[in-house]
Amino acid sequence: MKKLLLFAMLALTVQPCLSQIIANDRKIDWSKAGVKGGVPNRTKICSNVTAANTLAQINSAIAACPAHQVVQFAAGTYTLAGGIVINGKSNITIRGAGPLLTILNFSSSNSCNGLGASICVRAATLNDLDSPGNTTNWTAGYAKGTTVITLQSVTNLSVGGLLMLDRINDSTTDNNAIWICRVANTCCLDCATPSRNSGGLRSQVQITRVTAINGLNVTIEPGIIWPNFASGTTDPEAWYASGAAIKGVGIEGFTINTESATGGSSVMFANATDSWMRNNRILHLTEKGVWKYQTVGIDISFNYFFDKQGSDASQEGSESYGTNDYLASMSLTYQNIFHHITSPIQCESGTGSVDAYNYSFDDFYNLSSPEWAQASSYTHGTCAYLLHEGNIGFGMIQDIVHAQNFFHTAFRNRWDGFETGKSLQTVPIHIYAANRYSNIIGNVLGNNTYHIQYESFPGTPGGSCDQAIYAIGFGGNCGNGSIANKANTRTSLLRWGNYDTVNDASRFLAAEVPTTDPNYPNSTPPNNNLPASLWTTKKPFRYGNSNPWPGIGPDIAGGDLTSVNGHAFSNPAKLCWDNTSKTSGVLDFDANTCYGAVTPPGNVN
Amino acid sequence: MARVIPVRPSVPFPKATVAGTGTVSAGGGANTLAWDAVTDPSFDKYRVYFGTAPDTYNQNPGEGIVVATNSYDFSAFAPGTYYFRIAWADEFGNESPYSSEIQRTRS
Questions:
Q1: Is A42 at the interface with chain B, CB within 8 A?
Q2: A332, A353 Cβ separation under 8 angstroms
Q3: How far apart are the first and last CA of chain A?
Q4: Going by C-beta distance under 8 Å and a sequence separation of 6 or more, which residues neighbour residue B10?
């Protein structure tokens, strides 16, 4: 009780002063992440299916379900030699009886646009980088925040469709700003970030919804996120599929077991918007647990992810992505548990997504060099303006394997950068060369028995870099690599109000604010107050009445997580893991047990 | 057959008649619906669903009429019998389960 009282007193001092901390061009409105309008509560059942039904019967029931209704899967174990498909069928939910009751065991998959998925949620008409469908010049409306842009043609463009906006890459000469480059061993390693080729490679992409079309003027949501779209030599273009995206699809209350499945993902959303997965267990993932492929506003909340398919000892069975943004925008990944997953939350190309209040541990990696640690929030391609908030896990890596990253914000996370048996990349905040303009605010970082150095960057002695809180700007892990080191990865970095175990103190230092950055400077915050959140104005949905919020940060005291001076409380996802039974090490997960059932308004009269 | 919606095209926010925090008996008025205030810290708004037949509502899930307080004035409705249910939502629109359905008559 004393702790709660103390926390309550501290919470009163938390001020909504976001605008004074991060400059406008280094952030976006993250409250727009996730399903536009929220996840509805559908109750009308269009069809009941059981484990006795064939896969064809199940898919027929889905295809016949009217909008805003539910295909209800009875409790039971379903053996499925193929994929469940929701093809162009917007606004329906498939719902199990609960993740411990309705078990979907897949032994194959649906082709799902040639990429393969055990559950495929897809638009009727698909497109991709190599077959974009429709392309046109983007002739006006480039500034960050713009919501009405002008295209040269809108033929086949639909309200409700997705619009992909891109530009030609920069040259191999570093512009020392937002450098979009895709040349192996010059600016990235294998440079496999998705890139359309139209007059040159185009690695910088924004995906957005089309909400209105008036002549050649197109209203989009979200508005322009990147700050460097412009007319001229980078030749901005738009591309899109004919027809609308699929939207409003829900996947709820299942165990999705893909131990024996084929395909690249356990669940895929392709050309989709405003859809969700809630209260599921996703076990033994194919390479990607949830693949968001050309999407906007996909919500992955209150789920449990465990393990990749195959044997841990197998090299092939050891690299996995829990959720994967691949040409995705404004995804929300909230209050999930990631267990024995290499890269729990992965962005390979995307903008504006939020991962918040997740719990990740045992980021298992056994691929060729098992001593390498992997990060819980991982940016692996051309990603920008992501928000990581309130997570508990290993940490954040912005690598340069596929491409560069920009403007990511980490706020009030508890990242320890430590895992038993790992000795490389064991750093809570690891930002490789050519990634720039990150904002690191209010986090609780490090392990007090492992980390011995505050930061390592090019030009400093690197002997303890793998035991540093920050590694910043190296072309390789903590040293030279095939990519040149970059000093301005560090000089463009905003750090403010982070507690670390090396200093055993919270740092509010003007010297760690990029006030003189030539392109995207940030003023020194006027005081040490931090807002509760950069995402929500209220305590998040299903966070629990008794769980302190905010629960992590330099202004938090009395937290239950050890060795960080009380600056961190467990979040609900971690409490769920801690307090729920396991069967053979696998969590007996049901969100309604962990987070409590949401109660409706009572005594209506 | 298309459903007949026997109300004005736009139903306004309820009058500020009842803003209590507990149960309000008899609806707080002949043509006012009321319910217990939700105290969940993520609460942001209520959503009202109604129709003229049981378990049949004029609004799709997630698209109920938004009201800020725990009452709803349906005096603008045409006379007749209506069936209501109420949900609440957080600031992003994530919706709670629905209340039990209640039948009321617009007098």
A1: yes
A2: yes
A3: 37
A4: none
Q: CB–CB of A601 and B46 under 8 A?
A: yes
Give the span between the Cα atoms of B37 and A100, in whole angstroms: 33
Judge whether residue A291 has pLDDT over 70: yes
Q: State the amino acid at position A184 in one-letter form.
A: A
Instruction: Take residue A536 and report the two structure tokens written for it.
Output: 């929500």
Q: Which of A233, A225, A239, A224 is nearest to A169 (CA)?
A: A233
Instruction: List pLDDT tens digits, range A467-508.
Output: 999 999 999 988 888 899 999 999 999 999 999 999 999 999
Tokens of A416: 């320890």
Architecture of domain B32-106: Sandwich (2.60)
Give tens-digit pLDDT for A167-200: 999 999 999 999 999 999 999 999 988 999 999 9
Residue A575 Rama label (left phi>0; alpha psi -120 to 50; beta): alpha
Query: Among A432, A552, A560, A418, which Cα is nearest to A485's?
Result: A432
| Beta-sheet strands, E only, within A482-569 | 494-496, 498-500, 505-507
Quote the tokens at residue A160: 């409700």
Say whether residue A43 is in contact with chain B using an 8 A CB cutoff. Answer: yes
Nearest residue on chain A to B62, alpha-carbon basis: A40
Q: Taking the domains of chain A in order of start, what are their residue ranges?
A: 1-34+367-595, 134-240
| Residue A14: C-alpha distances to residues A277, A383, A417, A455 (Å) | 32, 30, 27, 28
Q: Which residues pair with A78 in a beta bridge?
A: A104
Report which of A137, A131, A132, A85 is spatially closest to residue A108, judged by C-alpha positions.
Answer: A85
Say whether A58 sits in a helix, a strand or coil. helix
Asked if A315 and A227 count as a contact pair (C-beta separation under 8 A), the reply is no
Query: Is B5 a residue whose pLDDT tops 50?
Result: no
DSSP conformational letter for A320: -
Q: Which residues of A touch B57 (CB under 8 A)?
A: none
What's the CA gap between A462 and A309, in Å, rounded? Answer: 37
Flag if A40 and B63 touch (Cβ within 8 Å).
yes
Task: List strands edge to edge, sheet with A250-252.
Answer: A45-49, A69-73, A92-95, A250-252, A276-278, A299-301, A332-334, A354-356, A387-389, A409-411, A439-441, A494-496
Q: Is the peptide bond before B79 cis (omega within 30 degrees of 0)?
A: no
Q: How far apart are CA A368 and CA A231, in angstroms?
A: 44
CB contact under 8 A, A31 and B92: yes
Task: Choose among A341, A331, A323: nearest CA to A386.
Answer: A331
* A114-131 pLDDT tens trace: 999 999 999 999 999 999
Enter the ipTM. Answer: 0.93
Any chain B CB within 8 A of the CB of A539? yes
Q: What is the spatial distance between Cα A345 and Cα B72, in angstroms, rounded to a whole number?
A: 42
Which residues from B are below 8 Å from A31, CB to CB? 91-92
Edge-first strand listing for the sheet containing B45-51: B65-67, B45-51, B80-89, B102-106
Other Cβ atoms within 10 Å of B41 Cβ, number: 15
Query: Cα–Cα distance between A411 and A404 in angstroms, integer?
Result: 21
Residue whose tokens read 């919470």: A11
**Token pair of A366 as six digits:** 């056994």
Q: Enumerate the β-bridge partners of residue B24.
A: none
Tokens of A64: 């016949």
Q: Contact, A571 vs A393, CB < 8 A?
A: no
